[in-house]
Every structure is written in structure tokens, then in C-alpha cells.
Amino acid sequence: MLHTSTTSAFVSRKVKNTVVKNTVVKSILLIPLVIVLLTVSAGFAYVHWSKGGTGAGLYSRHWSPDPVQGYWDPDNFYQSTEIVKGLFKAEQCIQCHEEITPGIVSDWRASRHARSEEPIYCNACHGNDHQQLRLPTPDECGRCHAKQHGEFRDEARHGFPSHVLAMERAVDTKHFADKPKAELQSCVQCHSVATKCDSCHTRHRFDAAEARRSEACITCHSGPPHPDGETYFASAHGKRYLAEGSDWDWSKPLTKGNYKVPTCAYCHMDGGRHQVAHKSLWKFGLREINPHTSQNRVLRENWIELCSDCHDEKQAGQWLTELDRERKSAWRKLYAAEDILKRLRGDNLLRPAAGERPPYPMDWLDSLWPRERIGFFEGQASAFYNVSAIERDYFEMWYFENLGAYKSAAHGNQAGVEAGHRKMAASLDRIKSKSDELRTLKKVRQKAKIKSDLPGAPWAKGAYTDYNREHN
Amino acid sequence: MLHTSTTSAFVSRKVKNTVVKNTVVKSILLIPLVIVLLTVSAGFAYVHWSKGGTGAGLYSRHWSPDPVQGYWDPDNFYQSTEIVKGLFKAEQCIQCHEEITPGIVSDWRASRHARSEEPIYCNACHGNDHQQLRLPTPDECGRCHAKQHGEFRDEARHGFPSHVLAMERAVDTKHFADKPKAELQSCVQCHSVATKCDSCHTRHRFDAAEARRSEACITCHSGPPHPDGETYFASAHGKRYLAEGSDWDWSKPLTKGNYKVPTCAYCHMDGGRHQVAHKSLWKFGLREINPHTSQNRVLRENWIELCSDCHDEKQAGQWLTELDRERKSAWRKLYAAEDILKRLRGDNLLRPAAGERPPYPMDWLDSLWPRERIGFFEGQASAFYNVSAIERDYFEMWYFENLGAYKSAAHGNQAGVEAGHRKMAASLDRIKSKSDELRTLKKVRQKAKIKSDLPGAPWAKGAYTDYNREHN
Amino acid sequence: MLHTSTTSAFVSRKVKNTVVKNTVVKSILLIPLVIVLLTVSAGFAYVHWSKGGTGAGLYSRHWSPDPVQGYWDPDNFYQSTEIVKGLFKAEQCIQCHEEITPGIVSDWRASRHARSEEPIYCNACHGNDHQQLRLPTPDECGRCHAKQHGEFRDEARHGFPSHVLAMERAVDTKHFADKPKAELQSCVQCHSVATKCDSCHTRHRFDAAEARRSEACITCHSGPPHPDGETYFASAHGKRYLAEGSDWDWSKPLTKGNYKVPTCAYCHMDGGRHQVAHKSLWKFGLREINPHTSQNRVLRENWIELCSDCHDEKQAGQWLTELDRERKSAWRKLYAAEDILKRLRGDNLLRPAAGERPPYPMDWLDSLWPRERIGFFEGQASAFYNVSAIERDYFEMWYFENLGAYKSAAHGNQAGVEAGHRKMAASLDRIKSKSDELRTLKKVRQKAKIKSDLPGAPWAKGAYTDYNREHN
User: Fold this and answer.
1) For residue C129, what are the β-bridge partners?
2) In total, how many domains does chain B have?
3) C307: helix, strand or coil
4) Which range of residues forms the domain containing residue B341?
5) Handedness of CA B33, B38, B42, B44 (dihedral sign)
6) S-S: A238 plus which of A233, C26, C47, C139, CB 3.0-4.6 Å?
7) What is the pLDDT of residue C126?
8) Is B389's Cβ below 8 Å from some Cβ in A?
């Protein structure tokens, strides 16, 4: 018995051990599971909470919209004017607004909306309760224009940059809350291409013929870092447009043989397809790309086919090769500049160093652990403000001069290629000379035993930091 | 008697004393009066004398007009061509000039002057003695076009900047005599808007339809510091103008409903009123203003009413608020830069310091008592020449980048707002970095006991000083 | 006999001496002649050999053409597409290309080539063997358009710059081989005006009316250093063109009375003469010229006569005088800047000094004997790359700001004159400040006994040297 008992005791202990062990194993398995579940839930809850502010996007709690934002992002922020009370019929809108705002009525009268057999009146898009008016969103337009809307939405597959994600990705970045709002407004007006259709089709005419013209695109697609308008109109294509375009029949679809020269939409929205992102090969010139990946080879073939509407295929291919070479040459200059800056940073020669200036408001990590950053890093364009002049030079070299050269090469504006590369070369010379100066000065300081820190340094406050925030 | 006599003597002495005292008091009162009268008279005489030179304005004795000035300021300087002799009748002018200068005749034939029942021939404005021809001044045109001329003259009430005072105020400033004349000529061509009507109405067609187009304004209203043309044509308004404007009926008056988008004149000369100055609210962006003074509130309401020709009143008001915010943001940057410069000046770190360079020729006070000056000071724009690079940076930040941002915000050119603020931010970074450098260098100099003065300094001579004067 | 013999011996010795002397003299005369002949022959042979590479011009052995070069310089480099085989008749070309490239066919149909009684079909210029197609050169066009071609060729008399020598002189310069080819391509596209006629007359319409419009010129004549388009369109002439040009009858010849304002071609190719170079007076603003040499006086008279198509002769002359003064003022600034740089160079204060950077690839002399060079030196524009920032500043001051001011003054764009001179003044201020800094730093270095040479200097490699050559 004793034996048995001991045995059973032994067995029971063994069982107990196994149970304990199992429980321990289970607990060990369970704990991280629970942690993961909790973390993920917390993460979701945090993101959800983050989006719950008066603004929009991931940083919605850090900014509140200016009233004018309602016109740029009506779905989120439009508040109807409440001066006039009542429900109105279609003809009543026209009758009254013919007096108040005759321009928009005459535009509407000239539109297909007015001239179709069953006219689309104001109330179809704006509602008829004058205290609950709405501004139409792309979804509203898409109720009738399903094909175009579907193509437009399809851009999302390609990520950003794309038209359809322009607003969403804008409000989801840190510098949306960092940057003084008065300046942000200039960004948002163009990014609103995602949230309303009249960026390209001027209300209330909504003319396809208008949108086919390059003028429709260049309100936004102009100026650094995307001088599309300037480079197109400076090309041989653009010059012929300028000379003859006012006599062309813009009611024709954007297909082979209908236009003397290509326009913005002819190439980027060929056949009227409302999807621009699927053609992106060189990624705006922001990064060096390999133009010969299998995917990019397909894109090249698409471009060559398009150019062949007018030109010899062989010539089209050779032009693309020129563009590749231009890009390679640009990146050589950029890498040379970045290299110099990294060495200066490594030798602690750039002021303000990390920690010598206030952190960017949204960058809590940076306030705990200040890091040096040279070159492009996504989502924090504000990191190029309140920095040394030489770093700023590099930023402009990359973001403006380089991208200007790229767009010029892509749009056939030879003077722009020259200008971009000439400016990059000048920036590089400036960066080199400044590097020489900083290093000489350091030697002298060391000899004279003078520390670099200065009282009353101007970096303590600055743009895009606490200094000039507008409590966005 | 004695008593009497002594009394009378006493009295007479008292009277005498009083008389003496009165005379003294009178003299004391008289002397400053005479001095004031003499001084004022002398002042008037001096100003009168100053204006008596071969030039015009307060500094007329310091410059003489180039012959071409006669075409820009005919009242003061035009000298008739004397090649042809004789008195000519209206038809004779036409007959001869049809051969010699057919372009101006064909322009005249297309004008209302030619097509009215009683045609206005050449001699009506130019006279008929070919050796005593005159170029018509605004007053000459005003003989018939009294309403427009009256409105134009009425701008004077608002001071400068205004069209009607453009020439007068130009020649009344010191830098008119300081600046090399070859460069001044580029200023005067636009300032001649005050002294001849064909700045806007091309001779000899003088077409109202032409002047309604934005092209008529932008020969002058372009380029820094007033990029009106660039910012308008880059806006959504401007793009529609570019695409469709050549098909519009420009014979229509500038009133509600007649134009698809506003043009320069539609907003600034609404209803065709030849008075632009009364609408000035933000003072060209040159100074920070309070947009909410009672006077400015009235101006705001005027603008909102104008925008309401096409837009919702509420939206118009919100756009103006955006403009206010943009201005505030710009001034933050400008003040930050000015502050750094003032500190550098205070610490004697900017070269050339006052006195290290030749005084501006017209600034006799400066030659006696050299003063440091940072920031904007009226009437002496030449004070921004032959100065340290960092001061020049600040000048350009204020006068070009800031004003570019302002015009962009006011005209709805979002990319221009971004560009202006981006450039100001870059200038501020440059100014900060340079401040760091100058302070470090000073420390090093002090340690090494090296004075800052350098032999052969390049500032001894320089632009806008004695160096390159052309004996204007 | 003896006597005779001695005499004769003497005589013969004398004769012999004379013969020897004569031979020596002859040899002495002959040797340099032979050397000269050999050298000249060797020179010719060397030049001939130099031109024998895969490229073109004096440096043809140092670069090989990108395939696309065939479209810009067809005579040297075009290789026919070989996809399609066969000999085709005129109508067959049309039939097939109506489908493949309808745009060029419709342009041809609208051309005088197609609409003349005996149409000029594709094969007339391209041949009819599809594997041996050629692109027409100016000589090809000249077979029919002899007058225009003759005038065009006649430009050669005036040397470079001229259209007819644009390509030849481009490939004959050192920096054609120095410069990264990707950038060169942007230059060559415009220089191809020498090697094909469709730079101005867009293929396949070849419309004289198109070439009369300023748009035809400004694909190339825009941007620094030749902002012809910008300055023309910013002038009063240009503004009227912009407002009204689309309504003008461009089929009219470029003669007096046919156009409201002058265009590029109206002034520079008056009467349609295809010879632009004979009017060059101010030499592009590249050098200071004396406008009053006897030759230049003739050119002035020509210009004044042209301006007199519309303006008073006296006024035209006064405008030219203004242009002279503008030029003088510009050169004062340029000389002041050059002077400062030369002193800095003399005091060995500019880095990289000669020899501190790799020589330009084509400049073998520089690799043996590094020379300092400040200012303009022909045929080696690449010498402005990989230089100190202050030298680069001077280069831009001279080549862009100065030339911009010149073109503005010549084309009547007052804001451009102001901008050019303002920028030159700012550059001069920057150069002066930098000079101060470099001199102060030198003093400090001397006191602290620190040499200027730095380890890891950034100049060891650089643009236009061995660093980023693309084995052109």
C-alpha cells in the first residue's frame, strides 16, 4: 500500500506536475495572446480615438478646421448657409439665383445638365432645404457618372501620390498639424481634388471640353515641386497649343488623330480614362528607380504605344532612354550632396544639432530622443524647417531643382532640364564651399579653445515648432 | 506839487516801465513769430527752388531728364519733333501717316474717335503745328472723358500708392536721384501711368474693351514686388480666362453676370470706375495692418459684396479671414528675421557698419551722422544697396517673398502662397545660420585679438553711392 | 698651270665654298619650310583624325551619339527604322500612315505641299525605300526653297552665334565632351536648328504662318541666358499680342502695316528674310561693346528704320540710347565683381585653387599646367563647375542676370531690367560680404597658424570632371 500510495502519490504528483506544467504552458501561450489582443484593440481604439477630433485624419485632435475648409472637404466640414429658410423647387432656385448669382446660372444653362431632356436642376445635387444645403462630393457625382467615378476610385490601388487619396494622405501626416495653418490652406486647396469634382470641371458648367484643356490641370499642377504646367507649355507640344489651341475643337474625345499635339489629359488620361496613377513609372522623381524592372518594362511599353499615336516607336523609346539618363545624372549630384552633409553631421558641424532646437510638435519621439536626419524622410516635411542653411539648400536641391529637371525631361522642355541641372550644380558648389568653411572654422575654434555653443542662439524658437504655431 | 510831481514822476516811471515791459513782451512774442514766418517762407522758397532744376520734383536739381523721358512725362519734358514744318489739317495728317506709320492710322480708324459722327482727328490731341506737336496728358483726355478723369484724379485723396500720384511721388524720393538713371528708367515707364492715358488704353485705338482685359494691366503689374499678373493667371479665375477669354465679348461693361470669371478690372475697377485706391485694405502687404478697424470693416464689406456677384457671401468672408491669417503668419517670420538683424547690428557684427561706406548721395544727414538702419524706411529704397548680404536677404524677404505671398493669397493662387512662405522660411534659416557664423567668428577674432577692419574693403565704393552715379 | 691649278683650286674652293654656303643657306631656308609644311600637314591630319570618331566635330573621338541624336542631326546620325520592308508609292505612304499616325497626315493635308497642283508627297523628302528612309536636312528643303535656304546659309558669314552654325560650333567645343551627356541633350535639341528646318516650321504642316508667330521661336528662345520669350511677352508689344494675337491674320507677310505690334520675326526677320545674324549689334550682352563704331552706327540706323514702321524716328533713337546706358550700368557692376574675385584669387583665398581639383577632361593643358581663371573664357563653360560658390555667383551674375537685363532692355520689358539689375546688385553684395569673410578667416588662420588645406576636401571629384562623366 505504501508502495501504492507512494506510487499513486508519485503518479498524482506527476499528473499534478503535468497539469501545472500544462497550465503554465497555457498561461505562457495565453499571456502574449492576450497582450497582443489588448495591444491591437488598444491600437485600434487609439487610432479611432485619434480620428475623433474636430479636424480629420490621424491628427484630427491636433487641429480644427477653418470654416473655409468646408468648401474643400464638404463631406467632413461643410455647413449649410442658413440665411434663407424654406424648401424650394428646381425652377425656384433658378429664378432667385438668376438675380443673385447670374454667373453660375448662365454656366449651368450652358451645361449638359441643363440641356438634356430631363434637366438636372440644382436640387439634384444640393438638396432643396435651403438650411440643409449640401455641396456634392465625388460619390454624389458618381451616382450618375459611375464609370468616371469608378476609374477615379480605382487610383487608390496604386497608393499615394494619387488624386483619390490626396486629401486623406494630407491630413494623415504629422506636418498637417505642425505647419502653420495659414500655409497649409494653400496645400489643401489642391489636395481637395480628392473630395470634390469641380477642381477639374468648373462648376456649374462641368464641361468635359474644359477638362480636356491643359489649363484645367495647371491651377494645381504648376510651380515647384511639380512644374507640370510650366514644363508642358515650354515644350514644342505646348508652344503649338499656345499658338493654335484656341481654334481646336475640344468637344472631340482624347483619341488618336483628334488633336494636333498631346495635352495633359491626352497622355495621362488617354481615352478619357479617369485613372492617372496606373501610369506612374518614375515616381515623380522623388527617388531613384530602376526603369527596367519587369513591371516598369510594361509601363514603358504603354508609354511608347501612346507616343506612337504620332511618333515613330523607335524614337519614342529613345526619348525614354534619354529620360533615364537624365535621372541617373540628377541622382549623382544628389548623392554627392547628401554625402557631404552626412559627413558634416557626423563631425557635429551642423547647427542646430538635434536637441538644440524645439522638437516638431507632432514628433513626440524626437522630443525624448532627438535624432539627426539628413535626406528625405516621409511624412515629416516640416523637418526641413528651422534647420541650417546648408541642409535647407540640400532640401531645395532635391525637392525643387531635381523635380523640376525631371518634369522638364518628361515633358520635353529642354531649357528646364538645363535649368534644373545647372541649379543642382550650383547648389552642390555652394554646399562644398560651405563645408570647407565649416571645417576651417572648426579647426580655428579648436586651436582657440572656443566651444561652438552660442548664447542667444536663434534656433530656440522657429517655424514649424512651438514658435509660430497657430494652435491648429 | 512836489508830491504831485513825484507822484506823477512815479506814475510816469510806472507807465514808462509798463511801456518798456510791454515792448519787451511784444518783442519776445514778435521774435519767434518773425523767425517762424521767415523759416516757413525760407522753407517754401527752398522747396520752390528745389523744384526749379532741369528734372522734376523735390530733387529736380540733382538729375536731368534723358530725352526719352518726354514720352513718359510729356507735360514736363516732351519736345516736339521738328523735322517737318507746317500747319496741317486733319485729313492731311492721315494722308501722310497712312504711308509713314500705317499701324497707328489703322488703329485710329478702328477706334471710336474715328467712327463717331464727328471724328476726333489727330490735331484734336496733338495740335496741328508739326514743329509744336504735343503728346496728350490725362488733362487733355479729361476734356472729353470728364467722368473717368475725375475718378482718376480722385485717387489722390488716398495718398500713395495710387495711379494718379505715381510719377509725382517717384520724382519726390531721394533714390530717384541716388539710383543709376539707366535703372530708374525701368521704374519710370510704369510710373508714367500718372502722366499719360495710353499705359492702359493703347494708342491710337484707345479701346475700352482692351483695357477690360487683364493683359492691359500686367505690363506693369507683374514681377516682384507686385506679381499681380502671375498670381491672377495662376488662380482658378485666371486659368479659365486663359482657356476661354479669347471667345468672350469684351465690349460688355464690367458688371455682374457679364463675365465668367473676374478680371483685374472687374474687381478693382468694378462698373468701370477709374478709381482703384479707395479699395486698398491690406496696403500692398508692406506693413502689418489691423484688418478689423472700423474703416477696414467697411472695406471688407465692400469686397464681400463684390465677391457675392458669384459666390456665397459666407464663403467670401471666410476667404478674407484666410487672407488675414496668411498675413499674420508672414509677419511672424519677418519680425523674427528683423529681430536677429537688430541684435547683430547692436553687437556691431554687420559690415559695412554705418560710416564704413560712402553715404547715399542725397542723404546729407547720413554723411554728417551715419546711422544704422534695419528694416523698412520710406523713401530711401537705395539704402538696401551696398549692404551686407544678410541685410540684403532680409530686404528681399520682406519686399519680394512677403509681397509675393500676399498677392498670391489675395488673388487665389495657392502655389504662390506656398512659394512665398517657403522662401521666407528658407531666408530665415539662412539668416539664422549666418548669425551663428558671424558670432562664432567674432569669438575667434576676439581670442586671437584681430580687429575686424580689413584693408581694401570692398564697400568703399558701391552701387547707389558715389561709385556708379551717372550724374543723374 | 700650277698657278692656274692653284687659282682654279682657289676658284673651285671659292666656288665650292659658295656652293656649300648656298647649300647651307638653302638648307637653313628649307628646314623651317619643311617643318612648317610638316606641322601644317600634321595639324590638318590631326584635325581630320579628330573628326573621325563616332561623334561629330573636333572632339568626335571623345563622345558617341545617343540614338536620339539621329533626330536632331539627321545628316550625321539618322538611322532609318527597319521594321517595314519595301518600296512604296506616294499614295501608299498616306494610306498606311493615315491609320498609324493620323496626326502627321492631317498636318500634311493642310500644308501647301499637299494642296499645290503637283503635291509634294512623303517620298519626295524621305525617299521611298522604307528601310532606307531619310530625315530631310536644310539642304534637302533648300532644293525647292532656295531663297530661304540661301539666306539661312548666309548667316555663316557673321560667325557664331548664328542659327546656321549652331550645331557645328556646339560639337566643336571642349565642354561638349566634358559635360554629362544627359544634360548636353537639352542643349543639342535647340542647337539642331542648324540641322533641320522643323525647329521653326512644325512638321508636316511647315506653315509660314506658324513660323511668323512668336510661339514658334520661344521653344528655344526662352529661359536664361536668353529669356527672349519671357521678355517679349512681358513688354507692351507682347501683352497686346497675348490679348489679340489669336484673331490676327497670320497669312500676311511680315511687312509694315500688317501687324498691330511687332513679333520676334517681324523685327529679326523683317520681310521674311531668313537671316538673323546681320542685325547683331550688342552681341547678346556677353561683352561690353562700343555702340558707336562706324559699323555699329550702320546697324543702329537699320534698327531705327525698322522701329519707324510704327514709331517716331527720334523716339526710336532715344530708346536705343537708353539701351546703351543700361548696358554701361550693367558692366560697371560686372567689373566691380570681377575685380573682387581677381584680388581674392591673387591672395590665394579661393578654394579649390587650380590644381586642387581634377582638370576638365578635355583640358589636357590644364592637367599639366593648372591655371587660375576668373571671368569669361570661350569654349570652356564647364570651367564654371566644381568651383567655389563665390565664383559660381559671379558666373550666374554675368551669364544669367546680366543677359536677362539686356534682353529685357532690348525687348521693352521694364520689370525685367529692374529684376536683372536688382539681382546683380544682390550678387555684388553677396560677393563683397563673402570677400570680407574669407579675408577675416585668413587673418584668423594665420594667427592660429592653421593651413587652409583640409583633409577629405569635397573638390577631389565633381561635376564635369572625372567624377560624373558618362563616357560620352
Assistant:
1) C87
2) 1
3) helix
4) 317-448
5) positive
6) A233
7) 96
8) no
